[in-house]
Amino acid sequence: MTTPVNRLRPRRSCLAVPGSNPRFLEKAQGLPADQVFLDLEDACAPLAKPDARHTIVKFLNEGDWTGKTRVVRVNDWTTEWTYRDVVTVVEGAGPNLDCIMLPKVQNAEQVVALDLLLTQIEKTMGFEVGRIGIEAQIENAQGLNNVNAIAQASPRIETIIFGPADFMASINMKSLVVGEQPPGYPADAYHYILMKILMAARANDLQAIDGPYLHIRNVDGFREVAGRAAALGFDGKWVLHPGQVDAANEVFSPSQEDYDHAELILDAYDYYTSEAGGKKGSAMLGDEMIDEASRKMALVISGKGRAAGMRRTSSFEIPEA
Fold first, then answer.
1. 265 touches 244 (CB < 8 A)
2. What is the C-alpha to C-alpha distance for residues 306 and 4, in angstroms, rounded to an integer?
3. Cα end-to-end span (Å), the chain
4. What is the 3-state secondary structure (H, E, C) of 2-40?
5. Residue 60 needs a FRET pair 20 to 30 A away by CA distance; which of 23, 279, 299, 310 works?
6. Using one digit for the tens of pLDDT, what is the confidence trace for 282-296?
7. Angle between helices 108-125 and 82-93 (to 10 degrees)
């Protein structure tokens, strides 16, 4: 009997680590990031990629990644490295790997190709088939146009990720600062992109992840950009530096007040809809009316809080008759 895979694991902070740098790979294990992805793509020079595959396998098998989602970003299908990335990493460290991240996804067929390759490796190696997830990174206009089909392409898909740097280049956006607003446009230039990714993710019960903020020492700037994605409903953001990890975890977690309130709503609604509570479809919680819609919104906040390891500081008390 196979154990169901948690496709909605916490990803408030997704730490990028060059797969060719043993010192960074060692340090990453001790950082409080929800997810760590060991990178074979942009963070690895072409000549370093073959050795980096084996370095990654070693660290996945021998490192202590307790409490972290373990991901490897391979190279995209237009390169000569992709299949060897996947075969070497998954054959060598499959049981200690949670997901493969595929960059520059342009259509659903590229996800299907990765799914088929993973299935063949799992069957050949005797691994559990289907356990390893796929994270799809959207980095150009074609990928964004096809994002709904991409989100539906495989049951392995766990996240849709916005890759801002390549995306900005692909549409000729007038800015050199990744994630910042281009000059001359008074509104949010990323709103449509982020919302389209978010809608595709939510329609298919997937997570939506924002990409990196490259000014790694500007934590205030990181918070501002991360806050934009969090406000829309994104689940997390890439972090490129240890200094960004705590900020991401904070931004993508609910406040203590909101978490407590969400848990109170769930408890109160559960009580008032029960036989003992009068089988009511709506009820008052203090000065607030709550109903089924309130419960659904509270589930989102409470889920994020629980995933972040938050603890309640208040409890629901059954009203006296």
1. no
2. 19
3. 48
4. CCCCCCCCCCCEEEEEECCCHHHHHHHCCCCCCEEEEEC
5. 310
6. 888 888 999 998 888
7. 40
Structure token digits, residue 177: 């600062």
How far is 252 from 231, CA to CA, in rounded Å? 9
Q: Would you say 11 and 235 are in contact if contact means Cβ atoms under 8 Å apart?
A: yes
- The string of DSSP codes covering 221-265 is HHHHHHHHHHHHT--EEEESSHHHHHHHHHHTS--HHHHHHHHHH
SS3 state at 301: helix
Rounded to an integer, what distance in angstroms lies between the CA atom of residue 7 and that of residue 287? 37
Q: Give Cβ neighbours of residue 62 (< 8 Å, ≥ 6 apart).
A: none
Q: Smallest Cα–Cα separation from 300: which of 258, 250, 271? A: 258
- Strand boundaries in 93-186, DSSP class E: 99-102, 133-138, 157-162
Q: How far apart are CA 92 and CA 76, in angstroms?
A: 20
With beta carbons less than 8 A apart as the criterion, state whether 182 and 191 touch: no
Q: CA–CA separation, 318 vs 248, rounded Å?
A: 37
List phi, psi (to 5°) of 231.
-65, -35
Q: Quick one: pLDDT at residue 176? A: 64
Q: How far apart are CA 175 and CA 183, in angstroms?
A: 7
Tokens representing 174 are: 């007038």
Residue spans of the chain under pLDDT 70: 1-4, 176, 321
